[in-house]
From TrEMBL:
Signal peptide: none annotated. Residues 12-133 form the Fe-S metabolism associated domain. InterPro entries: Fe-S_metab-assoc_dom. The lineage of its organism: Bacteria, Bacillati, Actinomycetota, Actinomycetes, Mycobacteriales. Gene3D superfamilies: 3.90.1010.10. This is Cysteine desufuration protein SufE. Belongs to the SufE family. Pfam families: SufE.
């Protein structure tokens, strides 16, 4: 499976963990979700209804060589925030082509399948699908 170096680093970090330590790492990512820039309001962002908790995203593809990704999720939704933070850490500032080449099921490599319900994991898949759709439409 080929993925950008930053995303591969995140996957590697998860693969170094076992059991509940993976969940702890996910919570650490949740705490590191970058805040929205002051000129971007949640109301202007796209909702991702497939997520179990409210999540909004914005894809800025004005520069296709340096796509910016923004996410908003409440602090009370650490799993959703963690997924968003993983995508932000692994994909933000990459080119549109690099992001479009990311395997749709890359998240299965994180090893969270036994710890998090398939319904919750589907939220991460939905985020990536929407990001790719925005890049194709841009």
């Amino acid at each position: 499976m080929t993925m950008p170096a930053a995303l591969a680093d995140v996957v590697s970090d998860f693969n170094e963990m076992q059991g509940q330590d993976k969940l702890q790492l996910l919570l650490e990512f949740a705490n590191e979700l970058p805040p929205l820039p002051s000129d971007l309001e949640e109301a202007a962002m796209e909702p991702v209804p497939e997520c179990q908790s409210p999540l909004f995203l914005h894809v800025d593809a004005a520069d296709r060589d340096r796509v910016r990704l923004y996410f908003s999720a409440p602090a009370e939704a650490p799993t959703t925030r963690g997924f968003a933070a993983i995508l932000a850490a692994g994909l933000d500032e990459l080119s549109a082509d690099e992001i479009l080449a990311v395997p749709d099921d890359f998240y299965s490599e994180l090893g969270l399948g036994k710890l998090i319900s398939p319904l919750r994991l589907r939220g991460m898949s939905a985020m990536l699908t929407r990001i790719k759709r925005r890049l194709r439409d841009a």
